[in-house]
Amino acid sequence: MTAVLAVLLAAAAGPPVATQASPAADFVDVTMALCYGVATGVVKFDGSLEGDAKVLTDRKVASGLRQGTMERLGRQGLGFVSQSIIGERVSGEDAIVLAVGGKMEGCRTMLLSKTVDGHETKVAKILVAAGWKEAPANDAHAAAVNRRMFIRRDAKGQPFLVNMFTGALAQSEFRVMTTVNAIPPGVELPQGF
User: Fold this and answer.
1) The pTM is what?
2) Residue 187 domain flag
3) Which DSSP helix (H) or strand (E) runs through 76?
């Protein structure tokens, strides 16, 4: 039912939003505008179709997903968007998918691309240029999905964490996914963070 509703919403929303920025820059823009916004409480979804669509379109993200984007995400990737508020932005040949809530808590941004290499490095460079500092991670290099972490404090000193996951899903153009969360008080951060 949710997948059918998502397709209907995508069809009703009209053509997806396209920009002139690079896919990595668009990806970080959607992550910061929406997922960071949700984590900081600046962005709020009200649960209504019209209200949630306006939150997305105000940030250059089309409401819903086109059928072609769902196919690019693949069967495994659909689990990331199941029962979520969903949207997409087209960036050249790539697509940025946004999912908020649903079966998975929080806000997720995913980059879909036919090309495999280079996305992680480009996204990391843009995050660092925007003031995020990469934290040490201890993921195994041979893991199917790898995680890199970036931390930044807001003006009040509250630390936030961007988790960047990279890897491959079967029959999917999934390349990078980010989540953004406030770091709770009492969590010990590495020195310098």
Assistant:
1) 0.85
2) no
3) helix 67-77
